[in-house]
Amino acid sequence: MIDVDDSQFEDMVKRALDSLPPKLGAEMANVAVTVQLEGGRPGLLGLYQGIPLTKRTTTYAGVLPDRITIYRRAICAICSTEDEVIEQVRRTVIHEIGHHFGIGDPRLRELGW
């Protein structure tokens, strides 16, 4: 386990988001990415809550943004080095964004995410 400073971890999440291809980022719609510094369920690295883009219909309007939460404590608990944290943050961010685009866990695992 490694302990990463709160602001440093938030910066890792920001860098992971900034590393997305611009076209992919432009396709994301009505989604907020947040960091939960403490708490969360053991082993839960990230969580997508919302209506995936593939499930939105013409009646989709006036709803709160979808949420992607990245859990600092859980990620730090499975990493030994700062480089491992950076890579796990990146993998977790991409995994949860995959859910936003309607990709399920089995397919994300097939893709290595």
Automatic annotation (TrEMBL):
Gene3D superfamilies: 3.30.2010.20. One of its GO terms (biological process) is proteolysis. GO terms for molecular function: metallopeptidase activity. It holds the Pfam family Zincin_1. It comes from the Bacteria. Keywords: Hydrolase, Metalloprotease, Protease. This is Metallopeptidase family protein.
